[in-house]
Write a structure and sequence with these properties.
Monomer. It comes from Salinicola corii. Specifically methylates the adenine in position 2030 of 23S rRNA. Its EC number is 2.1.1.266. By secondary structure, the chain is an alpha/beta fold. It has a single domain, classed as 3-Layer(aba) Sandwich (Rossmann fold). The protein contains ten helices and ten strands. The strands form two sheets. Strands 5-4-1-6-7-9-8-10 form an eight-stranded mixed sheet, sandwiched between helices. Helix 6 links the parallel strand 4 and strand 5. The longest helix has 17 residues. It is globular and about 45 Å long. The protein starts with 12 loop residues before the first helix and ends with a strand. The model has no long low-confidence stretch (mean pLDDT about 95). Bound molecules: S-adenosylmethionine. The site of S-adenosylmethionine (SAM) has 19 residues, from loops.
Length: about 280
């Protein structure tokens, strides 16, 4: 049974880390005109009103997007964070931050006519929300009520010259780390040049290491890892950080992200830190 609902966590520090990285990745890939198929394997909803009861209940956005929003004038308009906040501003009705978008919007809102976007969402209620929301001005968006990892494997190879995938599970099941690793291995076998961004939580149990180690042992090359730690790991305090694994990072994106995420850490919490490193090198 699927219990997780992203509305309880929308706009938290992990969303900010993930969506800033995702938007920067998309923007760098779009510097070339050739068509891209985007796939979001665990889409959630397109948009989250911050006043919603679920989002207010935990109020996680106060320690995430709200901190950046309050300091938005301090970022250069052409810096990655400044540009990212400017996109977010287009969704607000005034100067107040009232809505935060999910990955379908971060991927869909800059889609070009030659690109495609496939969104997988398995939870019936979340899929209904997603179907009711506009995430892109273009027609090339498909919303599928299906398992995202199995769906991705069936979908590849794609007909466009380039492929960009976001894998962002809720990790409700312990074996999801292994499933994600196995899915990536299958995708790379079919599309060696696939660009894939995987999100994972940093939890005291450290289960994300299974994902990282499986991929390294399988010999998957060119994986860049970014970990943003906002507090020390304490047994019963849950998620202490957010991780991203990027396969086939475009040229120099790792340097741009390192810089943006270091700035992000300094805004999110006292003592927060970012570490970016190549987890695996060239083949
Ligand atoms: N990617 C979203 C974003 O960044 O805004 C957040 C996604 S949330 C972490 C995970 C989502 O995956 C939930 O909406 C959940 O219902 C959905 N989900 C869980 N298992 C799934 C599966 N096997 N296939 C597709 N979606 C699934």
């Amino acid at each position: 049974m699927l219990a997780y609902q992203h509305a309880y966590h929308a706009g938290n520090f992990a969303d900010v880390h993930k969506h800033l990285g995702l938007r920067q990745l998309v923007s760098v890939m779009m510097r070339k005109s050739s068509a891209i198929s985007f796939v979001d394997t665990h889409a959630g909803r397109g948009l989250y009103p911050l006043a919603a009861a679920e989002t207010q209940k935990l109020g996680e956005f106060h320690d995430g997007i709200e901190r950046l929003w309050q300091r938005r004038r301090s970022f250069g308009v052409e810096s990655p964070i400044g540009e990212w906040l400017a996109s977010l501003a287009t969704l607000q009705s005034g100067s107040e931050l009232s809505r935060y978008p999910g990955s379908p919007w971060w991927l869909g809102s800059t889609l070009r006519s030659q690109d495609r976007l496939t969104l997988f969402e398995l939870h019936p209620g979340e899929h209904r929300h997603l179907s009711d929301q506009t995430v892109s001005p273009h027609a090339g968006v498909q919303r599928r009520h299906a398992d995202g990892l199995k769906g991705l494997v069936k979908l590849v190879p794609v007909s466009t010259p380039r492929l960009c995938v976001l894998i962002d599970p809720s990790y409700e099941k312990k074996d999801e780390y292994q499933e994600v690793a196995e899915t990536l291995i299958q995708v790379v076998r079919k599309v060696r040049h696939a660009v894939v961004l995987i999100w994972y939580p940093l939890l005291p149990a450290g289960r994300h290491r299974l994902l990282l180690d499986t991929l390294r042992q399988a010999g998957i090359p060119k994986l860049w890892r970014s970990e943003l730690q906002v507090r020390e790991p304490i047994a019963d305090r849950g998620m202490y950080g957010s991780g991203l694994l990027l396969l086939n990072s475009p040229w120099q994106l790792d340097r741009e992200l390192n810089h943006a995420f270091t700035t992000l850490a300094s805004v999110l919490a006292d003592g927060a830190r970012h570490q970016g490193e190549w987890w695996t090198g060239e083949a």
